[in-house]
Amino acid sequence: MSVHPISSSKAIGRARVHEGAHSGWRLFWISVLGTALLVMQSLSAAARPESLAPLAEKVSPAVVNITTSTVVEGRTGPQGIVPEGSPFEDFFREFQDRNGGGTRPRRSSALGSGFVISEDGYIVTNNHVIEGADEIEIEFFPGEGQPADLLPATVVGTDPNTDIALLKVDAPMPLSFVKFGDSDKARVGDWVVAMGNPLGQGFSLSAGIVSARNRALSGSYDDYIQTDAAINRGNSGGPLFNMDGEVVGVNTAILSPNGGSIGIGFSMASNVVTKVVSQLKEFGETRRGWLGVRIQDVTDDLAEAIGLASDEGVLITDVPEGPAKEAGLLARDVITSFDGFEVKDTRDLVRRVGDTEVGKTVRVVVFRDGKTETIRVTLGRREDAVGNGTEGGGAEAVPDEGEKELLGLTVGVVRDDMREDLNLDAGTTGLVILSVDETSGAWEKGLRAGDVITEAGQNKLSSIADLEAQIAAAEEGGRKSIFLMVRRAGEPRFVALNLED
After folding, report:
1. Hey, which bits of 298-397 come out as E strands?
2. For residues 181 and 59, what is the distance between their CA atoms, to the nearest angstrom?
3. Which of 65, 247, 367, 434 could form an S-S bond across to 197 if both were Cys, CB 3.0 to 4.6 Å?
4. Active site members
5. Which residues of 415-433 are buried (b: 16+ CB within 10 A; e: fewer)?
6. Which residues contact 433 (CB under 8 A, 6 or more apart)?
7. In this structure, are residues 102 and 212 in contact, taking their beta carbons and an 8 Å threshold?
8. Tens of pLDDT along 205-223?
9. pLDDT tens-digit profile of 352-411?
10. In the predicted model, what is the mean pLDDT of residues 241-246?
11. Parallel, antiparallel, or unpaired for β 334-338 and 431-436?
12. Which residues pair with 69 in a beta bridge?
């Protein structure tokens, strides 16, 4: 390959023009990149402020430390010091007997956090912070215009289901307070700030992000925001703020192997808390809606067995005495809509019902026998229904037919002498599972010895022949599975069992 130099004056002129054009484009793109870099730096600064001090100064006057004290039984004397058989053992026993048998009440203290939500002294904290306390004292953030002394607090109301408590203090001046924000607008990745009294160290602030949303821990009404902002013992009941200084959560729990923060903390979402606080303030207690059904999630195989197009909705397993039964809802109905909202799963329905006003008449859309129906139900009050829901019977027990293996199960007819152990009503009939093949689909579906099959194919069972007939009918109808109602310790659930196993 040879190189041909351009030596004429005309060629040199064209080269200079070409070089100038390239230089202009380079300057243009440098300018564009510089502008983009400035914009990105500006956005980054807006996303994460250089200092959280302005926010802390704004909200800290409304954050409080809570000290509780409780009188508990205690022991006096040198317990565990005097060895058994020692000549001093009788002496110390006589001393303890003269002093009330060796037991004296003692006072136990605990620490927590909270925040003021109104200038007239309403304070939100966790129920577990003040539960069982004889005395509750509130310490305010030090500063001008704040109460300098500890103030006694009274309990307005508590809700163990969400672990929320509402307190009230009488202050000598209007108090600084904070407002609740919309927790539904909190996004994963948003910055948040936790404030409280960790490990009794006094007012402290920690920052982090929203790590996850809609976490459930153990309750029916759980809706937790997960955060990596440091939360420790003593932070319980304290606020979780967004960058606008609004409370989006109440710090409640941590996940930790050692009791200290490892970056997994949970705050009850403000949209749950505000409803609870409103009811506690008005009534001194919660008043949640009650539908009156036992339910379970719809799985893919249950949807196929029922004839549903998708696995959304919840399946009613039992309808005890209550609003649902009075309105005409039935076991095996699938609730697809409640009060105008599509129902996704059992957790979704429980929360929607609980958030609905007691006494309200709502439209409940159900899938029944291959078609949808709309039923109006007037809700009762959940708190009044605790312990309600006894099941009725009416059929006679049938003679023992022995045992038989079907679909990976060994079953026998329920006998009268089994009912108490199986937690069954006197009139309940069905087949008790005596054993389950651990290689079968029945085992994978969670069926175990001691479970009782009361229905198959939406028909009650009173004999092994009844189950065989329903299996045959399902096979003749081209179904891949059979729909069973199973009771364990008296509690019902539905299972779609594969016929090919």
Report:
1. 314-318, 334-338, 341-342, 361-368, 371-378, 380-381
2. 13
3. 65
4. 128, 163, 236
5. eeeebeebebeeebbbbbb
6. 409, 410, 411, 447, 448, 449, 450, 451, 452, 453
7. no
8. 999 999 999 888 766 788 8
9. 998 899 999 999 999 998 899 999 999 999 888 764 433 322 222 333 456 788 888 888
10. 96
11. unpaired
12. 109, 135
Name residue 204's beta-bridge partners: 196
Are the beta carbons of 138 and 64 closer than 8 angstroms? yes
Decide if pLDDT at 74 tops 60: no
Quote the tokens at residue 447.
């069926």
Q: What share of the chain is helix, strand, coil (3-state, %, to 5)?
A: 25, 35, 40
- Nearest 5°: the CA angle 254, 255, 258 is 100
Residue 402's pLDDT is 67
Least confident of 178-187, 261-270, 303-312: 303-312
Stated as kind and residue range, the H or E segment containing 351 is helix 346-355
- Of the candidates 58, 70, 59, 247, the residue with the CA atom closest to the CA atom of residue 164: 247
Backbone angles phi, psi at 183, to 5 degrees: -65, -20
Asked if residues 161 and 220 have their Cβ atoms less than 8 Å apart, the reply is yes
Using 50, 70 and 90 to split pLDDT, how confident is the model at 11? very low
Cα first-last separation, the chain: 76
Task: Give the start-end residues of each E strand in 311-440.
Answer: 314-318, 334-338, 341-342, 361-368, 371-378, 380-381, 403-406, 409-413, 431-436
Average pLDDT, the chain: 80
